[in-house]
Design a protein that fits this description.
The complex is a heterodimer of chains A (330) and B (247). Chain A has 330 residues and is an all-alpha fold. Chain A contains 14 helices and no strands. Chain A is globular and about 50 Å long. Chain A starts with 5 loop residues before the first helix and ends with a helix. Helix content of chain B is 37%, strand content 24%. Chain B has nine helices and ten strands. Chain B is globular. Chain B starts with a strand and ends with a helix. Chain B has 247 residues and is of the alpha/beta class. In chain B, 48% of the residues are buried. Classes of the chains: A mainly alpha (330), B alpha/beta (247). Chains A and B meet through helix 6, helix 7, helix 8, helix 9 and helix 14 of A and helix 2, helix 3 and helix 5 of B.
């Protein structure tokens, strides 16, 4: 069940400070990397919501991000909608599609759920790859960024766009926290811990799963809209299953079910990718070794490791003495 | 309050429940006895909807619920505890009770507030924790409490939905004699208008709590009557109670 600890608040402040510092001091290339981190962080935040707090390990979140991106691109370029309307519609469509996927897949578990979501993702990828309206394998270009000139903000400026992505990520993080702390989120956690019991207590389990999956898809859709505006060009590669796989790697690398961890994971992954790829074309091998190390260490990702080390050093867990007494007797 | 008519269930060639008909009045406390494999748990599973009967009906508060799924039956007032603890292991006792109370109070799907912080949910959690003697353990995780306390919580979670009918599958299963005695008080202190159907092997508990006794053997009701009649029944002694009488 989701709880924010002082340590997590501190980690969030540290991450936000680091991002702000980078946003105000970095040059073009640094700002591009920061924006890439922020968009990936939004995607993995969405994935951690369902995988870490509901056990719904999705391999279609990359495709959902793609739905948001293509939705925005088609609606703003081909359909001629204004960017704010296209953005809202694209996010809404992504949320709707996610809800349907969540509802259909809610009865499957474990490997079957992973395969079902993978199948949905690949269906979306194949369709976009072939459909002329989406530009086929050529993709779509000429995508405009949101026009905020009315409030004196020019998103075509790289630094401003990075800051806009940071503000949007903060809002999405707040939304994720609100969802996980709500009655819906608590029930979702209950379902992960014991689905049979939640059903026996009177909960319509598939509906809870579909609702949270839909909301998670909505956040992935926002990430997609920002991804489309960032590069101003999109291709079917955005929807490939490898994007979903990469997102899952980032969640595990950062710390599954912590919400803060995936943000750390996104930063580490993107920085590693850029730094290592400048040294060797086999950078995936190094990332793979690091991931294996993280998994084998049994720590819950990089953030989980730091959090556990900090907790072990600073205090012992507060346990009701009477409960301990009975445990000893058992 | 709860009535079954001619419930039948087979698994292949094995007939697990045969024409089981029961009628429980509001506030009645009935204990189901029977040797292992008599079909007691299978009967429970059909009552709550976890198994679909091959034939027969289940009525709850005058309504036929045979076709309703598990969750809908639960929302209509049918709750159960399990023989094997079926709890939310990573959560605290308070959160376990709170999840159940949130469903009952309609807070389990709200997006705008924390269900566990709602006044009506906290009130149910407190009430139930008092009823099943869990107050000292509220903030302990399930993994930190003893097996016996987990059995109390198992009943508590079922109670937190404020059911009309509570089905308890061997509530004292696996607990020591001292703790089993505590369950006598726990069950006797439950509200008198709550209808109880209990599967139990502890004869002392069964005869202490029961208003009526039903005995199943090979899936069939072979006795249905008052505890005193059950004690004197030769058939019962033969199929089940011999070891208890000798003990």
């Amino acid at each position: 069940m989701f709880h924010h600890t002082p340590f997590r608040y501190a980690a969030l402040v540290l991450l936000a400070s680091g991002a702000l510092f980078q946003a105000f001091t970095a040059q073009y290339f640094g700002l591009e990397i920061l924006t890439e981190i922020l968009i990936l962080a939004m995607l993995v935040l969405a994935l951690d919501m369902v995988a870490g707090f509901g056990g719904m390990v999705s391999l279609c979140h990359g495709a959902l991000m793609g739905v948001g991106a293509y939705g925005y691109a088609v609606l703003s370029t081909t359909a001629g909608l204004t960017p704010p309307v296209a953005m809202a519609a694209a996010v809404g469509i992504t949320a709707g599609i996610s809800w349907v996927i969540g509802a259909i897949c809610s009865r499957s578990h474990g490997i079957y759920f992973i395969m079902a979501t993978l199948a949905f993702g690949q269906m979306a990828y194949s369709y976009v790859f072939e459909a002329p309206i989406f530009g086929g394998d050529d993709g779509l270009g000429g995508i405009e960024r949101l026009d905020l000139s009315i409030i004196g903000v020019d998103l075509n400026d790289t630094r401003t766009f990075a800051l806009f992505c940071l503000v949007t990520l903060a809002a999405m993080y707040g939304l994720a926290v609100m969802i996980l702390r709500s009655g819906l989120g608590r029930s979702f956690s209950g379902v992960m811990h014991n689905e049979q019991r939640m059903r026996a207590l009177g909960l319509t389990v598939w509906r809870i799963k579909a609702d949270v999956f839909g909301l998670s898809g909505m956040i992935a859709g926002v990430a997609g809209v920002l991804a489309a505006q960032h590069i101003m060009y999109i291709s079917p590669g955005l929807m490939a299953w490898t994007v979903s796989g990469e997102a899952l790697v980032v969640v595990i690398l950062g710390g599954l079910g912590t919400l803060v961890g995936p943000l750390v994971g996104a930063a580490v992954f993107v920085v590693l990718k850029h730094e290592l790829s400048s040294l060797t074309t086999y950078w995936h091998l190094i990332v793979g070794v690091i991931l294996i190390g993280v998994v084998m260490s049994r720590a819950n990702g990089i953030f989980g490791f730091i959090e556990n080390s900090f907790a072990a050093r600073s205090k012992t867990t507060e346990i009701n003495p009477k409960a301990m007494e009975v445990t000893k007797d058992a | 309050m709860l009535e079954t008519r001619n419930l039948n269930k087979s698994f292949g060639a094995v007939h697990v429940t045969r024409d089981v008909s029961l009628k429980l009045e509001r506030g009645e406390r009935r204990v189901i006895l029977g040797p292992n494999g008599a079909g007691k748990t299978t009967l429970f599973n059909q009552l709550v909807g976890e198994l679909t009967p091959d034939s027969g009906t289940v009525n709850l508060a005058g309504e036929d619920v045979t076709a309703l799924p598990v969750a809908k039956r639960a929302r209509q007032g049918l709750s159960r505890s399990y023989q094997k603890n079926t709890l939310f292991d990573g959560l605290t006792v308070e959160e376990n009770l709170g999840l159940a109370a949130a469903i009952h109070t309609g807070n389990a799907t709200t997006l705008w507030s924390d269900s566990l912080g709602k006044a009506e949910v906290r009130e149910i959690v407190k009430d139930v924790a008092n009823q099943v003697d869990l107050m000292p353990f509220l903030h302990a995780k399930v993994s930190q409490i003893s097996y016996g306390v987990r059995r109390q919580l198992e009943v508590g979670v079922a109670l937190a939905t404020r059911p009309l009918v509570l089905l308890m599958d061997e509530p004292t299963s696996g607990v020591g004699p001292e703790m089993a005695k505590g369950f006598h008080d726990l069950l006797n202190n439950l509200p008198r208008d709550l209808t109880l159907l209990i599967i139990e092997h502890d004869m002392d508990l069964a005869f202490d709590v029961a208003d009526t006794i039903t005995v199943l053997n090979y899936g069939e009701v072979v006795f249905d009557g008052l505890p005193d009649a059950a004690r004197g029944s030769d058939l019962l002694k033969e199929i089940y109670l011999g070891s208890w009488e000798d003990a």
